[in-house]
Amino acid sequence: MTDLPPSPDSGELTTSPTPSAHGGFETEGGPQTHSGFVAIVGKPNVGKSTLLNSFLNTKVAPTSPRPQTTRRGVRGIYTTDTQQIVFVDTPGLHKPKDALGKYMNQEVHSALGDVDVILWVVDLRHPPTDEDQLVARQIRDLPKPLILVGNKTDAAKYAGEAMKLYRALLEGRETETGEVMLSAQNNPEAVSGLREQILDHLPENPFFFPRGAASDQTREMWAAEIIREEAMKKLRDELPYAVATRVNRWTEREDGLQRIEGEIVVEKNAHKGMVIGAGGKQLREIGQAARKQLEVFLNRKVFLGLEVIVIPGWREDEEALRELGYE
Ligand SMILES: Nc1nc2c(ncn2[C@@H]2O[C@H](COP(=O)(O)OP(=O)(O)OP(=O)(O)O)[C@@H](O)[C@H]2O)c(=O)[nH]1
What we know:
Elements: E1 34-41, H1 48-56, E2 74-79, E3 83-89, H2 99-113, E4 117-123, H3 130-139, E5 146-151, H4 159-168, E6 177-181, H5 188-200, H6 219-234, E7 244-252, E8 258-266, H7 269-276, H8 281-298, E9 302-310, H9 318-323
Parallel strand pairs: 1-3, 1-4, 4-5, 5-6, 8-9
Antiparallel strand pairs: 2-3, 7-8
The structure holds guanosine-5'-triphosphate (GTP).
Guanosine-5'-triphosphate binds at residues 42, 44-50, 63-65, 67-70, 91-92, 151-152, 154-155, 183-185.
Region (G1): 42-49
Binding site for GTP: 42-49, 89-93, 151-154
Pfam families: KH_2 (PF07650), MMR_HSR1 (PF01926)
């Protein structure tokens, strides 16, 4: 498991061991601990990953203005002296068009099965759509505490009205339901208030991850997601969804320089040129933007080598999906 995206506060890479077979990290003779899993669900692009990063004050999940940036269920871990929240950030629930889309929806369903609290994030700039209804149907009758999180209040003209419409989609629900309106992006007090609400719901449990762990992604997965985030920001039209990324090698020089070698995977030869751009300009820009982010979060100098490769039709190819880490 994890080498972590380090917290910018610590500037260090930490490694978290695998939880023990009984699933817990006991604090022997220590105070009683509460811990649990919290799923962050919602349709694409409502701000789930932004909220997760704000909960943790660090970046464990990719965010971008494009819907469907998150593909895996990313876990982020928040630990106090006696409490631990394991957040499961899920890909936006949507109508799947290909095997990748199906994988993404499965990630959401498996996340919901096993959590203690559900956060349903909605975008208050707009009234509910069919996709919100799809999410509401999945979660309404689950017998677990649910908090409706109305996001983007900073940019919403009729936040209160929109919230009413979202609330109505949960009508008939019998289990405890809370709600909060906030801006995941620039409302730290409201975000920490929501985190406190979640802490109140945690059952008595030993910790699932060691203190100091911020995520259960490997550092390679984390870096690959940052590269993909930058690629998705730069690429136009449909192409972003035909792009995957992976990091194949990560070595550290004695002077601390991190040498990271990654690949941007596309489906067609024609796409390769689009990613590379004239004279390699586009690829250079993607690499520079990703390197900057990596350096900020690692607090180390980074050399990032990027190559573009073609795996024909990878989004429809189960084996390729597995190879790219979507399993
Ligand atoms: N104005 C405003 N924008 C926000 C806020 N929170 C998130 N955003 C923006 O909304 C966009 C989507 O955010 P993400 O966090 O990537 O959304 P997501 O729900 O994880 O998206 P998927 O990965 O597609 O499921 C980004 O451009 C964010 O910057 C907010 O509170 N206010």
